[in-house]
From TrEMBL, chains A, B, C:
<feature type="domain" description="Rieske">
    <location>
        <begin position="8"/>
        <end position="109"/>
    </location>
</feature>
<keyword id="KW-0411">Iron-sulfur</keyword>
<protein>
    <submittedName>
        <fullName>Aromatic ring-hydroxylating dioxygenase subunit alpha</fullName>
    </submittedName>
</protein>
<keyword id="KW-0479">Metal-binding</keyword>
<keyword id="KW-0001">2Fe-2S</keyword>
<dbReference type="InterPro" id="IPR017941">
    <property type="entry name" value="Rieske_2Fe-2S"/>
</dbReference>
<keyword id="KW-0560">Oxidoreductase</keyword>
<dbReference type="InterPro" id="IPR036922">
    <property type="entry name" value="Rieske_2Fe-2S_sf"/>
</dbReference>
<keyword id="KW-0408">Iron</keyword>
<dbReference type="GO" id="GO:0051213">
    <property type="term" value="F:dioxygenase activity"/>
</dbReference>
<dbReference type="InterPro" id="IPR050584">
    <property type="entry name" value="Cholesterol_7-desaturase"/>
</dbReference>
<dbReference type="GO" id="GO:0046872">
    <property type="term" value="F:metal ion binding"/>
</dbReference>
<keyword id="KW-0223">Dioxygenase</keyword>
<dbReference type="InterPro" id="IPR044043">
    <property type="entry name" value="VanA_C_cat"/>
</dbReference>
<dbReference type="Pfam" id="PF00355">
    <property type="entry name" value="Rieske"/>
</dbReference>
<dbReference type="Pfam" id="PF19112">
    <property type="entry name" value="VanA_C"/>
</dbReference>
<dbReference type="GO" id="GO:0051537">
    <property type="term" value="F:2 iron, 2 sulfur cluster binding"/>
</dbReference>
Length: 352, 352, 352
């Protein structure tokens, strides 16, 4: 399997990246993450080019990281700063350095061509920085391809079957709206449940909910798999203008071909100062992702064996899969574009 | 490795298959097993053709099973009965359904061509249904090819080395009879130990055994690996007509190429109402199978690596291996017959 | 990966090989080790040629070993001594037998051509038998290629980074001497730290050490990876002739391509009768090997994936790697010589 390289991926929550180096595998590459004395994030290959030792077990020397095995030191730009066994530094002795940036409380990494790492390409997750919201979040390791997580979020109709807390009760008045919008390579799905009675999740977040309400859900997807989840609840009573909003950043970064890091958040516009509630909300959402979605995706991946391309297994396609299919087409298009570009020099030579 | 498809395999003990669906891998296929409201066993593929979700985690809706991920419902015959996301059911949306039948307290499954699933082909294990016997039994997962378990049972001479409780003491009067009979594709081995003194196992089941007795053992084998084990003990005293009979169903069903489900039973004609003794007898037999035969077979498989065909590894063959060799030849013959049949349409076309 | 076959490897500590058979995988071959009634070591294939049962689970019958599954008996020379199921012993029914010898308190094994197993080829480790020394030792399983352990010992400059207890304090007077000598296929490295102050390790072994001392270290390497480690400490005071010597046998035997058995010892010329100190010294050394070197080598192997040839991964080479590179060249040369020899008959035929 190949990965889209020239896009931003979430590497970590900002608070995870501290002075003490730690390692994470991203797109099958082992990366070490730490911060400089000034607080800037650094991402380097975690594999020393000398004897393949794991850099994250080494000490920081100022902003440089020291190999734990033979003491070679590397700067944040990857250059070897010191060979303690002689004055000579062999040419080519460097670690791969990755562009990284702090934004929206996350550390974003660019695994492709460094000179194309334009921060403007990071999709927007403004609630993380918005004083009108309070955010909880975390990261869930998932034993399945990152695309299976995107499939999951791009078809919210599964909530009626997989998530007891999200099941909307049978009611003749309730009406589902489902739509898919596409703007360039950005896909937005809508999954509104109009005129429902309160149910498990609204019971948790809205104890004094009105008798009838609208659940307005949706997902904005950008390649490779950075998603914004909307879970808003509005009173149906025209005299009741209450509206509970939860925005979620759902950022899925491949670890290996059959596993991924699933960064999630929930930013709420209500009960901002109630940290106990915030913890309960976070636990409820994390449990849904971990024990229901995550477990299901792991089972699906297990049923796929080592195959990573769901489409290659010729699944039966339902109308509800349309957004996921479109997202996979965009990923395929971007992958082919990267592969063609790698082929360019050859093509030029062929033209001469 | 390929498996014989057009034969009955034991899928489960009858009491294992209840309303609550459960999954078992048989011949490398993931199967879900449950019972209808009327109590009939159902066996379907456990992999939803939509998103490859594990069906056994879904709920039953009457006799239908509902996919736990997106709620598709399938009938016992495998047809999709409901698509909750629209009226349309895509053509070809079905689960593979397997013929299953309750017989001799077991659920038997046919993994091949459904129209050839003739119940008359199931070998007979009448003691399970015979009021003159009391049966205990279980299932032991074995980390070895199903054929290694058959090899084990088809050469009972190993009992003198592997099973302390079955070792017959050295005695100049004792005489071993060993024979092999074949009737069509059914092989029967005989391993009688004549004129022995009581030993460990007879001490357990026959505390007042006579001073000299005959141990009459044997195995009837039918392809792929459904065996009937005989362990009978008869007094040598002409005035003592006591005879303790144990019949065992030893039904070995491949799970993967290097693991299998070993269903075993012990049906006794004595101490029928003594359930404490029945438990002791069952534990003794299960421990012999699990910790001696099963452990040995796992070691043998480990020494074979990923190889599943013992013969391909060119073992030294002893005269005591003759029954096992014949059984492997019959399996090979049946496999080739199935493979040739698959080739038929091609051959017909070649003749035109 | 191929292994040098026609060299002596350490199979076990002498005291590990007793009457009770045990198994160890050496060069990817499963071997059973035991002693005859006379106390001579025996090494045979652990895989019975009949049904591939693990011989080490069998009983000894005098000097013969009995297969635990069907009771075949084999003599120390590998010949089948008894088939309990008939008088006939099939031709070719034997276990591979390996030359083994007790020397320097270790059992050495020859995995290649038996008629070339010349004990004079075993490198010397005389301190194990020298009354002026007291030896402690053990074996550490390492999850890395045996050559990575040799690399580790052939470049002792890593001690300054990996081993806190061995770090010599910064001191302007301290001077490092590093040299490499080669005599035929034997490599000797020197790593002396002259005029240091006492540090962690000398604190442990030499509480009344002088204020300034020389640490004289070095490694003698013989193919495939049998090493003699020198760790001597000498007072710098001309009137103080104290010298603490530790010799270590560091014998590395491949288990699989990516794991090895690391036999180590420490023979000291001081505090000979202090067994409590001997235990402390052994624990300190074992912990350094196990938790620092061994753990690092496992990380390096993990970073190499399934690759076993470090050089094939094109590491950056430092001057301190020179001894390790030379050792790998000698291994390569010996491997090619063995492979060419195997090819001889073919070449002869081609010449005819």
């Amino acid at each position: 399997m190949s990965y889209i390289k020239n896009r931003w991926y979430c590497a970590a929550w900002g608070h995870e990246v501290v002075r003490d180096p730690f390692t994470r595998t991203l797109l099958n590459e082992k990366v070490v993450l730490y911060r400089t004395e000034q607080g800037h994030p650094v991402a380097l290959s975690n594999v020393c080019p000398h004897r393949f030792a794991p850099m994250h077990q080494g000490r920081l020397r100022g902003d440089d990281i020291e190999c734990p095995y033979h003491g070679l030191r590397f700067s944040p730009d990857g250059a070897c700063a010191l060979n303690p066994h002689g004055s000579m530094i062999p040419p080519g002795l460097r670690l791969k350095s990755y562009p990284v940036i702090d934004r929206y409380a996350m550390v974003w990494i660019w695994m492709g061509e460094a000179d194309e790492a334009d921060p403007a390409l990071i999709p927007e997750f403004p609630a993380h920085d918005d004083g009108g919201y309070k955010t909880v979040g975390g990261m869930i390791p998932v034993k399945g391809s990152y695309q299976l997580v995107a499939d999951n979020l791009l078809d919210l109709s599964h909530t009626q079957f997989l998530h007891p807390i999200l099941v909307v009760p049978d009611d003749p008045e309730t009406r589902v709206e489902h739509d898919i919008l596409q703007d360039g390579d950005t896909i937005t799905t809508i999954y509104n449940q109009r005129n429902t009675r309160p149910f498990g999740f609204t019971g948790l977040i809205w104890p004094d909910a009105p008798e009838r309400l609208d659940g307005l859900s949706g997902v904005r997807w950008d390649a490779p798999a950075n998603m914004l989840l909307k879970l808003h609840f509005v009173s149906r009573d025209p005299g009741d203008d209450r509206e509970l909003r939860i925005w979620g950043a759902e950022l899925v970064t491949p670890e290996t071909e059959t596993s991924c890091h699933y960064f999630w958040s929930a930013s709420r516009n209500f009960r901002l100062d109630d940290d106990v509630f915030g913890q309960q909300l976070g636990d409820a959402i994390a449990n849904v992702f971990r024990f229901e979605d995550g477990a299901m995706i792991a089972e699906v991946q297990a049923n796929m064996g080592d195959e990573t391309d769901l489409i290659a297994m010729r699944p039966v396609i339902l109308p509800t899969d349309q957004a996921a299919i479109r997202a996979r087409r965009i990923v395929g298009k971007l992958l082919r574009a990267e592969q063609n570009r790698k082929g360019e020099p050859k093509q030029v030579m062929a033209q001469l």
